[in-house]
Amino acid sequence: MKILMVCLGNICRSPLAEGIMQHLADKEGLNWQIDSAGTGDWHIGNGPDQRSVRTAREHGIDISQQVCRLFRKSDFDTFDQILVMDKNNLSNILAMARNADDRKKVSLLLVDQIVPDPYHDDNQFEPVFKMIEDGCRAFIKRFLNHDL
Fold it and tell me: What average pLDDT does this structure show over 20-36?
């Protein structure tokens, strides 16, 4: 399976989500490829926010080599699932969908709630990590139970 994690700038939440999902999938022996992208173009080519890198590292996950990129329509062809962090990301990605098949691939990572953007509050990186980790674990559980 190929999964794309999406947030606004691709420097805080989606890099964490990429690293966490890849880490958990690898632990489960799942042959998944995880990537991340943003809906905004401010950070293209940059690495993740150092607070995200530090938080991930504290949990044994290295996201320091990731490179920020912009979501593109061709991602609908490449990825099986596109998991977004909040409702603005959801509406932005759905607006780019070309058809019903594209739209079926897109959902909130946390199903019925958003992952808040920690960018403006250093103290939110750890809680956001936990939210994303819980969402990734739930996604894997649904997959293993064939509920996706």
Answer: 97
